[in-house]
Amino acid sequence: MTIKYRFLFLCFLFSIFSIPAHSIELSDHRGGILISGEITRGDYKKLILFLRQGRLDPFANAIFLDSPGGDVIEAMRISNLVSRMFGNTFIDNGGKCYSACVMIWASGVVRNIGMNSKLGVHRINLTRDEINVSKTDKAVRPIAEGVEQYLLRMGVPRKIVDKMNETSTTDLFVFDHKWLIQEDLISSIGYHPTFIDVAQKKCGADPYANGMKTGILPNKQEAMKWSFCIDNVRSENLKLDMSWAALISDKSIQ
User: Fold this and answer.
1) CA atoms within 13 A on the CB side of 171
2) How far, in Å, CA of 86 to CA of 58, rounded?
3) Cα 55 vs. chain centroid, distance in angstroms?
4) pLDDT 10s digits, 75-118
5) Residues contacting 75, CB < 8 A, separation 6+
6) What would the pLDDT profile of 199-240 be if each residue is shown by its tens digit?
7) Ordered structural domains, the chain, with CATH
8) Hey, which of 33, 100, 147, 239 has its CA 20 to 30 A from 164?
9) Cβ(100)–Cβ(75) below 8 Å
């Protein structure tokens, strides 16, 4: 099964087992978009229509998140869009991004988490009444494997993916900026791996990562120069790959 059809198959499975709830709220925020509230069926369409209003500079693409999670099919669709837009994802200080929301956050080429913000993961949960273990395993396995492969491809460290798989559907493993530093994961989780490999060829090594290792943080001018260079690489690639524009202008979404 090709990657394209595997993705469509997973989306079909997700749609079967999803239950609508309250929709996300979209608003202008710090030059980007804030996605807040629970992710539900129809929110991908809602985001597309919001973007058509020209409310986001396509070459800024700052996506701020504050969500408890929700419908995985919508999160997967939104993640695909954010990834194609070479988006920067943020969780502001005091914000949270749990469960399905983590997929959207992980889709950013540059990913930021505030000092007092929290991320949370747990195993995939299908919202249906089923006591047959074999049937449940058959339904859950392809979805769980698809989510795991996606997160790993986006560069989410194996340790976090393992925490997701170890945590019950009725529980939540919550981690923050401090935990990521303690586990030496703050640098590896901050960027899409292919993007940062390409960007560092032009911009040099991440001064923040070097500062974490040496204990000597970069000065403001050095940090800003590197960040500006990284953002230029992102904008250049956005112009080279315009597939995101086709998604936003999809005539089937009205």
Assistant:
1) 8
2) 9
3) 20
4) 999 999 999 999 999 999 999 999 999 999 999 999 999 989 99
5) 39, 69, 100, 101, 103, 104
6) 999 999 998 877 777 878 889 899 999 999 999 999 899 888
7) 3-190 (3.90.226.10)
8) 33
9) yes
